[in-house]
Structures are given as C-alpha cells and as structure tokens.
Amino acid sequence: MKSFRLKSVLVVLFLAAAFVSCDNDNDDKTDNPIIKPAFVTEIKGPATGKVSDELSYEITFAVDNGCGEFSKISDVTIGAVKGLQVEAAYSSGPCTQAIEYKKTVYKFKSAVKGTFEIKFKKSETEFLTQKVVID
After folding, report:
1. Number of independent structural domains in the chain
2. Mind listing the pLDDT tens digit for each residue in 102-134?
3. CATH code at 105?
4. Can you spell out the DSSP letters for 28-80?
5. How far apart are CA 44 and CA 52, in angstroms?
6. In-domain check, residue 27
7. Phi/psi of residue 56, each to 5°?
8. I need a surface site. Which of 34, 80, 88, 133 has the fewest CB within 10 A?
9. What's the pTM value of the predicted model, to 2 decimals?
C-alpha cells in the first residue's frame, strides 16, 4: 500500500512539474518596433477631383532595411511649412541591410473647391508636393 501511495505522489509531482515547465516565457514579451520617419520618393495620383470625392494617392517611401514596414502617416513641420510624413516601423531580428522602397495609399477628401497641395517629407529640409484642383 505504501508503494502505491508513494507512486501516486510521484506521479502527481511529475505532472505538476510538467505543467509548470510547459509555460512559455515568451508570452509576456512583445515586439516593440522602433518607429522612424521614412522619406517619400514619389507621389502618384489624380491632379483633379470633385468636392466630397475621396482621392487615392500612391506614396512610395524608402526604408533603411528589410525589416522596415509602413506604420502611419503623421503631421510634420519644416520651418514654418506644414506637411505630412510617413513613419516606418522596424522590428528586431535579422534583416537584409539593403535600402528598400515600400508603398502605401494616402486618401484625400475636400469639402470645398480650390487648389490644394499635398506635401510629404522627402528629406530633412524639404517636401515632395502634389497639387490637386477640386471643383
């Protein structure tokens, strides 16, 4: 009887150890990417549009390496001039070190008629500009 009790206790301890050892310690770690500005190299899209119509512009931007991906578009100011900038997210891990070009789409919509300039940061000191006439 003592042998059965001892074996039962050992089995319970073994199973408890197995459950504890299967806990994945990587669950708590989140990949916190590094966010950096990415310079725009090209804006493609319509030069004219109608009031309240949504226009799509294809934005090409350069990332520093193979881990760079589109994160978001944000506001930026160079001197007194306001515009937009693309932000790229870089994950940790092995990456190719070649500069790559990625694309995203920027949506523009105006509720009034006029001529507008869509400006994206192309360097630390200047914007790449796309004019659009809304009628």
Report:
1. 1
2. 999 999 999 999 999 999 999 999 999 999 999
3. 2.60.40
4. G----PEEEEE-EEEEE--SEE-TT-EEEEEEEEEESSTTEEEEEEEEEEETT
5. 20
6. no
7. -110, 135
8. 80
9. 0.75
